[in-house]
Amino acid sequence: MKIAVLTKAIPKLKSLKIDSSKKWIDDSNIQYIMNEHDTYALEEAVLIKEKLKDNSEVFAITMGPMNRSKQIMQEALAKGADKGLIIKNDFKITDPLAFAKIFSEKIKDEKFDLILCGLASYDLGSGQTSVLIGELLGMTTATFAIETNVINKKIKIKKELESGFSQWIEMSLPASISIQSGLNNPRYVSIKNIVQAKDKEVIIKNVDKEIVTMQGFTKFYVPVNEKKTEFIEGELDAVTNKIIRILKEDLKLI
Amino acid sequence: MILVVLENQRGIIHDFSLQAIVAGQQFANEYNCPLNILCLGENADNLKNQASKYECDSIIIAEHNLIKEYTSDGFSKALSDVIQDKKPQFTIMGHSYMARDFLPRVSVKQDIPFISDLTSVNFQNEKIVFSKQVFNAKFLTNIELDPNVKSAILSFQSSAFSKDKLIFGTPKNIEKFNLSLDKEDIRIVSQEPFKETSSDVDLSSSEFIVTVGRGIESEDNLPIMEKFVDAIGADLGSSRPVVDMGILPKSRLVGSSGHTVAPNLYLAVGLSGAIQHVVAMKGSEKIMAINTDRDAPIFEVADYAVIGDLFDIIPELTRKISED
Ligand SMILES: Cc1cc2nc3c(=O)[nH]c(=O)nc-3n(C[C@H](O)[C@H](O)[C@H](O)COP(=O)(O)OP(=O)(O)OC[C@H]3O[C@@H](n4cnc5c(N)ncnc54)[C@H](O)[C@@H]3O)c2cc1C
């Protein structure tokens, strides 16, 4: 089986600032990491391959600027992907459908049997990508998988539903599925894995066509606080005394 | 025309759908156009009866043998057909798990934008400006549609429209929509939803909850929190990443994928306050949060914002309270 895992480099969320255009974050001095939700999708793909014990292959695929894409591609290869595909793109695309159209155009010839994604990206967080790509490529789709089981040309998935409910569904392959975080334990990467990853094949494609968008981000801002909030800070002793006074006297909880 | 799509939740209209009706009523008012409410497949007739008390122009019932149970194949095809025929300017749903599961497919089938997970909408003279949270709720962004877009799909977060604003009335018209679905359209077989085995605690009835977030870093640090809740007599809750990392069981999870809670005091420790968490705890009587980051979104809903390191504050609180 040919399995694809879509993964994205996202900024480390600590100490982000809005840039002067107010349309994006200031990315002059930030570190990029693999979107945490994707680490579970990648692990699930590798687990599926290991369970099948055939000549299945896991492709890690990412789209974005070259430097950060290379960085997380090495991580994906070290974590068990067999091959990589980087779709080099320097445009900031905030229209999920436009993004998915480019993505599916670039991967359609690979004829994947299964595409796995994290449930959303921490940065833009539309949570649409896996479903859009699945539909664009004529695949079956499912979201929030918490268990997967591939059985000859079909996949059985346990889906997470709202308020503690779950549901089993079975669908035909090819399928595109978003994975709920926490369903597995992403593996530890050894130095040996990191070294071996350097020898794995990475294909590079370019986004050169003009991108047509129908929606887009127009202005970033920091949320305003509508509630009257009492701020408590300072010396540890004073802060903890204050908290205890609130718990005891104001709220009568202890 | 504005189209609101209702979702069936175990026999009744999903709460998010009631909020979507409020959104639909406001859009229809703003654009001075008809509001249609769509009851799709699963339990459609029953939903129609429940929806008949809300003001709208038309309730559309679209039923078919092949969508008696929800599948993303069936629902996306059916909704796409309705949009194709009715040409709504906006199709609106609550941002539920189901909406996430099939609306992107309708967006592809119709080649129209789906703006998901919206927190608010602002009608300005000639244009409409939406907003949603980005970067794990650190920022909000405005979103606008290209002026050439004639039709779009929207899904709103549960906080965007309050169902207290529902306008009651009677639909002027009830209409059956003929769907043409083929067996081949449905490639997904779904089984009955079930509830995972129940939990050791019932957080939903708890009066004092201390919830720990990713700030706890690792399982090794959990005793700090356990000693603290023992000392003050609270129940311990958890954010999603803490459950994902296996530090606490899912029965402790507060959020849209876990419990909804409303204690007298909700104390959030080392937790950022993402919308999926906040929706399930913002009804608490009082909220206190301890966080090192002054800009953490959790402070927006907090009555008491303690800025500091949990590894300093929590052990010190435990010590002082135990000595008492
Ligand atoms: C469909 C869906 C469903 C979801 N369901 C849920 C859900 O049910 N429940 C849920 O919680 N989330 C849910 N999430 C995830 C949610 O979006 C957030 O990712 C999550 O809530 C963040 O958890 P957190 O606050 O613990 O971690 P983070 O966002 O990483 O926040 C950690 C916080 O701790 C602070 N901190 C770090 N160290 C310290 C310290 N030493 N002292 C004090 N503060 C410190 C940091 O400043 C930061 O604010 C869901 C997401 C999706 C997409």
Describe the protein's architecture and organization.
The complex is a heterodimer of chains A (254) and B (324). Chain A has 254 residues and is of the alpha/beta class. Chain A has one domain (2-206): Rossmann fold (3-Layer(aba) Sandwich), CATH 3.40.50. Chain A is 28% helix and 30% strand. Chain A has helices spanning 36-52, 66-78, 96-107, 129-136, 191-197, 236-250, and strands at 2-6, 9-11, 32-34, 57-64, 83-88, 114-118, 140-151, 154-160, 165-172, 175-179, 202-206, 215-221, 230-232. In chain A, helix 2 (66-78) links the parallel strand 4 (57-64) and strand 5 (83-88). Chain A is globular. Chain A starts with a strand and ends with a helix. With 324 residues, chain B is of the alpha/beta class. Chain B has helices at residues 15-31, 44-51, 72-86, 97-110, 222-232, 240-244, 275-278, 310-323; strands at residues 2-6, 8-9, 12-13, 35-40, 58-62, 90-94, 114-118, 120-123, 128-134, 139-145, 152-156, 173-176, 188-190, 194-195, 208-212, 235-238, 265-269, 286-291, 304-307. A seven-stranded parallel beta sheet of chain B has the order 7-11-6-1-4-5-12, sandwiched between helices. In chain B, strands 16-15-17-18-19 form a five-stranded parallel beta sheet. A three-stranded antiparallel beta sheet of chain B has the order 8-9-10, with no helix packed on it. In chain B, 53% of the residues are buried. The model of chain B has no long low-confidence stretch (mean pLDDT 94). The interface between A and B is large, with 80 and 89 residues.
Helix content range of chain B: 25-40%
> Main beta sheet of chain A, described?
9 strands, mixed
Shape of chain B: elongated
Strand order of the largest sheet of chain B: 7-11-6-1-4-5-12
State the domain count of chain A.
1
| Average residue-wise pLDDT of chain A | 94
Average of pLDDT of chain B: 94
User: What fraction strand of chain A?
Assistant: 25-35%
Number of domains of chain B: 2
How many angstroms separate the termini of chain B?
A: 65 Å
State the secondary-structure class of chain B.
alpha/beta
The total of helices of chain A stands at: 6
**Chain oligomer state:** heterodimer
